[in-house]
Design a protein that fits this description.
By secondary structure, the protein is of the alpha/beta class. 37% of the residues lie in helices and 20% in strands. Helix 9 packs across helix 10. The mean pLDDT is 95.
Length: 404
């Protein structure tokens, strides 16, 4: 057994950050640590680690100009801590696989080439994710890498929910609504089975994943029926720096009056809009809440966010023909009771009633006992889904079912 490699590393690469977890394969999957590399490309980046051992809890400032350097810093520390040549596999969250890739699978040279062609589908995530894949392959050429696509959960949405109303010929090129936050949705639905049983989890459910990225998803019989994000993760509700849905006429208007080209418009939509764009202060919801009484711009950004999420919830109650459970998750959904309360305010006629004390305490169930709709708060865990998907792809059936 000396050649046994006991660890699976999960990588969740963002535009300027990388979240990671290290799992040990024993009788079950056991998470040894998790962490994040923040502010990649800035003058000072941060490496934060939280582990089950006290010595593995730290935060340090490092110089990380790009994703290649990030992998070097992370793996130098992991090898020093857990030994060299100890990885069985690396599992990657891949935001977009286009129409060709959705199911988790081993990454091949052919897949990487195809993903490079998909760069225009998601220019803010795919190039960095591809660079991470190549960097890990260069450092560990014999270690399996598995792609877990964030679109998979929504792959079987009804066709009417996938169609984008532009000339049909573009659909042949992969232009349709895909939906994202699929790994989070998958985890939440697995948790629902554990919490209420498989029969109840087949009901009419809305998942509100509210974080830096935000989406609302309608689920029935365990399947995605519709979701607010579309062809790219920029669509739907306003987010930290993303606009959400826009009037397409803005493209022509800004090109004509401001000289915007496609690159400039993409930067505005993804990096300068949402909470940041409206508040002109911050993209962080917690910070905006702290200043809303002194800054009307912050108050308007918060109001717009809550209003738009409320609209999507109402729309999906109509799509589902009713609602059994509303789930809040993500950094905002899990930790900001004020936002949850404002979103649900006025939805009594739709069967949603919160209990103030349990909501403020961030309890698991925050609705009144008499509420027709059960409102839950569930902490999401995309990394555990990635780890289990890796085990499934590699044929480790026992481990994909058990995780600590």
């Amino acid at each position: 057994m000396s050649s046994f490699k006991p660890y699976i590393l999960t990588i969740n690469g963002g535009s300027s950050s990388i979240k990671f977890s290290l799992f040990e394969m024993a009788n079950s999957l056991r998470r040894l640590l998790e962490g994040e590399i923040e502010k990649i490309g800035a003058l000072q980046s941060n490496l934060l680690v939280k582990g089950i051992e006290q010595s593995d809890n730290f935060s340090r400032t490092v110089s990380i100009p790009d994703n290649t350097a990030a992998v070097g810093v992370l793996m130098d520390w992991i090898e020093k801590r857990f030994g060299q040549d100890s990885l069985t596999a690396v599992g990657h969250r891949i935001v977009h696989g286009g129409s060709k890739y959705s199911k988790a699978q081993i990454i091949t040279e052919e897949m990487v080439k195809e993903l490079e062609k998909l760069g225009p589908f998601d220019p803010d995530h795919l190039p960095g994710e591809i660079l991470l894949i190549k960097t890990f392959h260069h450092r560990y050429p014999d270690v399996a890498q598995v792609a877990c696509f964030d679109t998979f959960f929504h792959n079987d949405m009804p066709r009417v929910a996938k169609i984008i109303p532009i000339p049909r010929s573009y659909e042949l090129k992969g232009v349709r609504r895909y939906g994202f936050h699929g790994l989070s949705c998958q985890y939440l639905m697995e948790e629902m089975v554990q919490l209420v049983g498989s029969d109840a989890a087949q009901g009419k459910i809305i998942l509100a994943h509210l974080g830096n990225g935000a989406s609302v998803t309608a689920v029935h019989k365990g399947k995605s029926v519709d979701t607010s994000m579309g062809f790219t993760p920029s669509a739907g509700v306003p987010m930290s720096t993303r606009s959400g849905d826009l009037d397409p006429g803005l493209v022509w208007y800004l090109a004509s009056t401001e000289g915007f080209n496609a690159k400039r418009f993409n930067k505005m939509v993804n990096s300068e809009s949402g909470l940041l764009g409206i508040s002109e202060t911050s993209s962080d919801m917690h910070e905006l809440l702290s200043i809303e009484t002194q800054d009307h711009r912050a108050a308007e950004a918060i109001s717009l966010f809550c209003y738009q999420v409320k609209k999507w919830i109402g729309a999906y109650i109509a799509v589902l023909g009713g609602l059994d459970t509303l789930v809040f998750t993500g950094g905002i959904g899990e930790n900001e009771p004020t936002i949850r309360a404002r979103i649900c305010d006025g939805l009594t006629s739709l069967g949603i009633q919160l209990e103030e004390k349990v909501n403020t305490a961030n309890e698991g169930v925050i609705s009144l006992a008499t509420s027709q709709v059960t409102v839950r708060v569930i902490q999401t865990d995309e990394e555990s889904v990635i780890a289990k998907e890796v085990c499934h792809v590699l044929g480790l059936k026992k481990l994909e079912k058990d995780i600590e």
